[in-house]
Specification:
With 313 residues, the protein is an alpha/beta fold. 44% of the residues lie in helices and 13% in strands. Strands 3-2-1-4-5-6-7-8 form an 8-stranded mixed beta sheet, with helices on both faces. The radius of gyration is 18 Å and the shape is globular.
Length: 313
């Protein structure tokens, strides 16, 4: 995969791709790339207004883009369920689901369902969404893929089952690390369960973008009201980060490349895995712990009320 770029993506005509957080950053660049290859892109966005603005930007670059902007607020499980219901009503199948949206290092807050926001949005929202869309993914004519966006920050994460919502002790970065570790535990456990139930035509793959220049880094400083930290983040992004277009490559590779198998982890292969062309990588030992993954799955099922139905109809 040395030097792999967007130009190496296969044609995606007649395929339906769902991208969460499609209105900015990696989601926007990924949606644009999928549209260039002919896919119908469902842009799942918390704000339809911002989603429509992003869709206009994509159509300016890809005049024949087929885009469908829909509201999907991962911080509200009832909204996630409504989004999935609407998708099932209008589509017969989903070929690629990119669990991309996320929040990073923000002051403690809670979702509509009372979950700590980083864990609730980054993990639980996507856990619920994937479960709701499993039947559509299984209905694809050819192999379908579920791509879950993690981060190198998973290495500083720890799943604290005694305080998952960080009510007793909250650190914005430790909470983010927990959510990104949860993304990997989920992606790998989902692949195991798909394989165990004979869903060989549906793959679960994980990825991370390295350090990409997106709006993700600015939300925390803004919510803290820190002009200084916002400015410092802007300088850091300008000096050290790769572009959002480059940061989207691992997700795009995981979603479309022919040599990808279930359970892979794709990230940029340059300096400190922060930038560069996508490559297969190894996440840390904690992310590979099957006992923790099974416990997290059970807890996630209880918290979201979403049961995965692996029976094929």
């Amino acid at each position: 995969m040395t030097g792999w770029t967007i130009e190496d993506m296969p044609p995606l005509r007649d395929q339906t791709v769902v991208v969460t957080g499609a209105n900015s950053g990696l989601g926007l660049e990924g949606s644009k790339a999928f549209a260039r290859r002919g896919a119908t892109v469902v842009m799942a966005c918390r704000s339809v207004e911002r989603g429509e603005s992003a869709a206009k930007e994509i159509r300016d670059a890809v005049p024949n883009a087929t885009l469908d902007v829909r509201e999907c607020d991962l911080a509200d499980l009832s909204n996630v369920a409504s989004f999935a219901d609407g998708l099932r009503a209008d589509y017969d199948a989903v070929d690629i689901l990119c669990n991309n949206a996320g929040v990073m290092a923000i002051p403690r807050s809670e979702t509509a369902d009372g979950f700590e926001t980083q864990f609730g949005v980054n993990h639980l929202g996507h856990f619920a969404l994937t479960g709701h869309l499993l039947d559509l993914l299984g209905a694809a004519d050819s192999e379908s893929r579920i791509v879950t966006q993690s981060s190198g920050a998973h290495e500083m994460g720890e799943i604290d089952f005694d305080d998952l919502q960080r009510e007793r002790s909250y650190g914005k970065w430790s909470a983010y690390g927990q959510s990104k570790l949860a993304n990997l535990l989920f992606a790998y456990e989902l692949q195991r369960r798909l394989g165990n139930h004979g869903w060989d035509d549906v793959l679960s793959v994980a990825c991370h973008p390295g350090y990409a220049d997106t709006d993700l880094q600015f939300r925390g400083p803004r919510e803290m009201g820190s002009t200084l930290r916002t400015a410092a983040m802007g300088v850091a992004n300008a000096v050290f980060a790769q572009s959002a277009e480059q940061g989207a490559l691992p997700m795009l590779y995981a979603a479309t490349a022919e040599d990808v198998i279930g359970g892979e982890y794709v990230g940029p292969g340059g300096l400190f895995d922060m930038r560069g062309s996508p490559e297969f990588q190894q996440s840390n030992d904690a992310s590979q712990d099957e006992e923790t993954a099974e416990q997290l799955w059970a807890v996630s099922t209880d918290l979201t009320g979403v049961e995965y139905d692996f029976e094929r109809t």
